[in-house]
Structures are given as C-alpha cells and as structure tokens.
Write a structure and sequence with these properties.
single chain, mainly alpha, 2 strands, extended
Length: about 140
C-alpha cells in the first residue's frame, strides 16, 4: 500500500475509533463518508479490528514493499493457476450482498452481490477503488 493511502487509512481508523468508542462527532463528514466507502471491504474491517488491538503495528503488514520490490527486482513473480474443481458450494461463505446507492434524489438502495469481471474482460482494474489490490503501485 502506498504511503498516501496508508495515511488516509490511518486517518479513517482514528476518526472511526473516536466516533464509535468515544462518541466524538465527525468534523468532516463528507471526507469521512468517502473514506468509509473506500475502506468498507472485509479486509479493511479485519485490519481495523486488528488495529484497535495492536495500534499502528497492525499496519506494517500492508505497508511493506517487500513483495513489490521482489517482483520489480526479478526475484519474485505472481502465478495464476486455474483450479481443476468448482468451489461454488463455498460461495455463500464469501458472497455477501453489498448495498449500492441508486436514485440520488430518492436515496433508493438496492442489494447486489459482488461480481468479478467476466473472464476475458478488458475492464481497467487499475482504476478500482480498492488500493490494497495495488500495493506495489
């Protein structure tokens, strides 16, 4: 995770803890809502719980550049393997519905499950909102 995103994550965790545990009002609600949306993935929720217990030491694991440095230096690589079996029977364990805002004037909400891009998709994944996916960037 790049230092800028790490600082934003630390800011969000600090404000969230102050709000939830100490009942401190959020000063910049727009910025807080943006960060809340950006860091709502389960990995960040788990990291937040760990951060509450360990403090900034919990963030060292996501701030390490070791994997990115190894790949850039040629000592590391990413390999993809197609699994020989279907694991769809496990999808209820990870396929949780996500609320999507719709109809800004009415504040409508719809529930939709996460769907990865279709195989062979040419979607530009570098513009995704999840900065942890691009830790080496």
């Amino acid at each position: 995770m790049n230092p800028t995103v790490l600082n934003e994550l630390r800011w969000y965790f600090t404000k969230r803890r102050a709000s939830e545990l100490n009942r401190v009002p959020i000063e910049n609600e727009e910025s807080y809502a943006y960060h809340e949306d950006s860091f709502r993935a389960p990995r960040y929720q788990a990291l937040y719980q760990r951060w509450l217990k360990e403090g900034d030491a919990a963030l060292r694991v996501v701030s390490s550049t070791a994997a990115g440095d190894a790949i850039k230096g040629g000592a590391g690589r990413v390999e993809y393997h197609v699994l020989p079996f279907s694991y769809r029977h496990l999808s209820p364990l990870v396929d949780r519905p996500v609320r999507i805002q719709g109809g800004a004037e009415q504040g409508e909400e719809a529930v939709s499950a996460f769907r990865p891009p279709a195989q062979g998709s040419t979607a530009d994944l570098t513009s995704a909102a999840d900065p942890l996916l691009y830790a080496g960037a």
